Amino acid sequence: MVELAHIMAGPVCGLMLADLGADVVKVERLPAGDGSRGFVPPDVGGESAAFMMLNRGKRGVALDLRDPEGVEIVRRLLDDADVVIENFRVGTMDTIGLGWETVSDANPRLVYCQITGFGRTGPLAHQGGFDLIAQGYSGLMSITGEGPGRAPVKVGAPITDITAGLLGALGVVSALFQRERTGRGSLVDTSLYEAGVAHTYWQSAIALAGGGSSGPLGSAHPLSAPYQAFRTSDGWINVGASNEATWRRLIDALGRNDLATDPRFSTNADRMGNLEELVDVLSREFASRGTEDWLTTLEVAGVPAGPVASVGEMLEHPHTEAREMVQKVRHARLGTVRSLGVPVKVRESAARGSGDRVEGSHGRGAPVLGEHTREVLLSGGWSAAEVSDLTERGVVVDGGAQNRVR
């Protein structure tokens, strides 16, 4: 699998597939490689923490795509590849001779995954892909924030980049499954725009049903209440009493069974119609005690609730450890570094084997620039002399030998 991708959406796609066991060869452009190598601070020993997060589990090749010989190297790699991932602006790969039509003619079994800002077709297809811009176009920023009249707020994480990568990975595995039946590869086409649109399911349901465009609700839900964050005496707590059963359990836990007969709150429709009054009543109750005290009370009562944790608190939480969502990987220059773990656990059925997990990131950290160039080219049919010649002439970078931990 060849990853001709940079920054985030394409590398997330490659990361997910590497986590599930794929041999992903990341091709970086010279002179500087993936743009996220320059996203510092923070860095670990001079290596970009952002780059290392998204590119673990991959082998790295560095070459000059402005040089026809560099392009020819990629073309030869694609002749034997199962999948290629790219996330350049529409038309870029066609310009250098690596577009879908060209490479699929040479390798009809190739699955070609193209992730762009707005897809291959439509009036916005020519625009580049940036998460902030896609969040605005897709409607996400109109429903994110504290409330009407406040400045627009984007989702804190680059959600369209990440989701586009996940959608790309889903498309790739679907295309590979189809290839098992047909023997032919496919073009997978997704975008940051569509990734953003996909996150508006509830709000689009409201609009398509004639309910108009929803606005920002802070942490609240557009269809049920109470379902949001409340301030406690020492922090914040999320409460998800999103149906009648949990609503009754909540008011019982609060000692406010009088609310069960309050006509403003009798049904979910009533509670949504009187959301401001509901929040005011509940806010006074939650402000009377601390977060941990409330969490204990609500757990006993069977009401979904949880804290508003910081990222640091999440990383140190016992559940994060139990789910192996922080793992140690080996970096060629830095030794052992920590990274986020694999979010999808795949196990064989007990009938077929021991039940051991079959996915994995190979225990390999992100590559230094050109770390596996020589290894990949030698296995691809180039001779040692040819690789040395390409290196001496600056067509490729062989970054492996001098960066290995002794």
Can you give a write-up of this model?
By secondary structure, the chain is α/β, with parallel strands linked by helices. It has 2 domains: 2-198 and 324-403, Crotonobetainyl-coa:carnitine coa-transferase, domain 1 (Rossmann fold, 3-Layer(aba) Sandwich), CATH 3.40.50; 227-308, 2-Layer Sandwich (formyl-coa transferase, domain 3). 38% of the residues lie in helices and 15% in strands. The chain is built from 17 helices and 14 strands. The strands form 4 sheets. Strands 8-7-6-1-2-5-14 form a 7-stranded mixed β-sheet, with helices on both faces. It has a 3-stranded antiparallel β-sheet with strand order 9-10-11, with helices on one face. A hairpin with a 2-residue loop joins β3 and β4 (47-48). It is elongated. The two termini are 29 Å apart. Mean pLDDT is 94; it is low at 354-359.
